[in-house]
Amino acid sequence: MSEHEPRTTGQQFGRRSWAEPWKIKMVEPLAVTTREQREAALEGAGYNTFLLRSEDVYIDLLTDSGTSAMSDRQWAGMMLGDEAYAGSRNFYALERAVFEHYGYQHLIPTHQGRGAEHLLSRVAIRPGQWVPGNMYFTTTRLHQELAGATFEDVIIDEAHDPADLHPFKGNVDLAKLRALFERVGPENVAYVSLAGTVNMAGGQPVSMANARDVHALAQEHGVKVYLDATRMVENALFIQEREDGYADRSIAEILLEFCSHTDGGWISAKKDSLVNIGGWLAVNDQELFEELRNQVVIFEGLHTYGGLAGRDMEAMAIGTRESVQDEHVRARVGQVRYLGELLSSWDIPMVQPIGGHAIFLDARRFYEHLPQDRFPAQTLAAELYLDSGIRSMERGIVSAGRDAAGEHKRPKLELTRLTIPRRVYTQAHMDVTAEAVKAVWDAREQARGLTMTYEPKYLRFFQARFEPL
Ligand code: PM9
After folding, report:
1. Domain ranges across the chain
2. Exposed end of the chain (fewer CB within 10 Å): N or C?
3. CA angle 466, 400, 385 (to 5 degrees)
4. Which atom, in ligand 1's list, is nearest to the CA of 116?
5. Per-residue b/e over 301-326, b at no fewer than 16 CB within 10 Å?
6. Does the pLDDT of residue 8 top 70, yes or no?
């Protein structure tokens, strides 16, 4: 080792550690509660972590959505907000950043991801059509269904098995997609809904080769591919690490190439793009763009602000550029892996390989004695909160909702998600979290499950209420 090379502690032990490429400038104090306080708060929240007040939460791993810490550059950008009703210069800055990093020609800002899903579904779906996708996402599928489509899951089978170690568990099964084209006719397929790092599968990536093949197959049938690029930056890291030919390519290059295999996309900028609010929809087709641009003024706002303030668009433009920096993505996914590897070393069951944005605990194996009707993943989220004030999210039977006949959809994956906000928590928070999960694991035989006492019609996981059995 030359004397100019860095000497890290890790190096002394024959390994090299990573660290975040930032330091902390401002802190937000956290509340520490007693077990009695948490019992009262959870009861008041109907045993649904979405209904807790954040002031009753210690480490908040509910979601990585809108929970990022913005950089000093982003905060400075907020002061450059051009709050004109029309033609804000921040819109043009965002348009440039999206074009440079995602490659799409025409941009429509939206207030968040589901605003974009709503517009795309209204414009691109004819009632009675099908939308194939690599596993459902809650808001995405609901907007497709409300527009009259039937969603068809065409993800590879491996994605439904938490223990399968396939490196690209987000991939589309081309045989399933081809079979759908043959069964219903390509004219009855609205578009292929492709998502990067598939959220409900455990943050699992799609390979570049798969994106290329999906696009070729869809083009053969005259069908467009639209990308949910919400966590596509994280997907690019997995391609860099796992796919032949990409080890020396930057995240930015991989992202741009991946998007070139799609006809347009949308994003909840509250994730990868490091902002607290915002989203966009962007397409290459001029005619489709004009229709979308007409719809956005009905539901979101003028086509140069889409429900956002100018300052929000500026923060999003800057966040977009920061999000594709290799060091940033490595540290972000590295922190998720740190937590996952610690839990794995204690044999705690979770979705493997560890995904990009969260650890997904396998509640079926966690609570082997609880049938799915007792909501094991919801139970696990409740127990974890009671133990230590850590907030997580159910991603199982409650999130899946009901089918047209009114029966519970029963996903194979019954998961509790520990979602890591970007640039927010330290390694010590990860240690505390891991120890809390271990405590709940050690007490797993005492869990009795929950019963649902209130169920809203749409996206029930947000507002449903439960009682302990
Ligand atoms: N995802 C999440 O916590 C927000 C709350 S749960 C609905 O994972 C994808 C892949 C998402 C997503 C939101 C949206 C919707 C679209 N696609 O929340 O409307 O993970 O900005 O985005 C959440 P918005």
Report:
1. 2-60+326-468, 72-323
2. N
3. 40
4. 19
5. bbbbbbbbbbbbbbbbbbbbbbbbeb
6. no
Q: What pTM was estimated for this model as a whole?
A: 0.95
Which residues neighbour 86 within 8 Å (Cβ) at sequence distance 6 or greater? 302, 304
Q: Which two tokens stand for residue 348?
A: 């705690």
CA distance 153 to 138: 13
The CB of 352 under 6 Å from ligand 1? The reply is no
Ligand 1 centre distance from Cα of residue 182 (Å): 31
Q: Which residues are catalytic?
A: 85, 137-138, 228, 271, 395, 461
- Is residue 74 within a helix (H) or strand (E), and if so which, with residue range? helix 72-78
- Closest Cα to atom 15 of ligand 1: 113
Query: What digits encode the pLDDT tens for the residues 41-86?
Result: 999 999 999 999 999 999 999 999 999 999 999 999 999 999 999 9
Q: For ligand 1, atom 16, name the residue with the nearest CA.
A: 113
The Å distance, Cα 61 to ligand 1 centre, comes to 14
pLDDT tens per residue across span 152-164: 999 999 999 999 9
Q: Is 133 in the pocket of ligand 1 (CB under 6 A)?
A: no
- Report domain 2-60+326-468's class: alpha beta
Q: Are 173 and 157 in contact (CB under 8 A)?
A: yes
Nearest protein CA to atom 22 of ligand 1, as residue: 113
Distance (angstroms) between ligand 1 centre and the Cα of 392 equals 15
Nearest CA to ligand 1 atom 3: 63
Output the CATH code of domain 72-323.
3.40.640.10
The per-residue pLDDT for range 424-438, each reduced to its tens digit, is 999 999 999 999 999
9 confidence band (pLDDT: 50, 70, 90): very low
Burial degree of 21 (CB within 10 A; 0-12, 13-18, 19+): middle
Cα dihedral: 354, 356, 359, 363 (round 10): -80
Relative to the CA of 357, which ligand 1 atom is closest? 8
Judge contact between 440 and 428, C-beta under 8 A.
no
What is the whole-number distance in angstroms between the Cα of residue 299 and the centre of ligand 1?
A: 19
Task: Answer whether 82's CB lies under 8 Å from 302's CB.
Answer: no
Atom of ligand 1 nearest to the CA of 459: 7
Q: Is the CB of 112 under 6 A from ligand 1?
A: yes
CA distance 189 to 132: 8
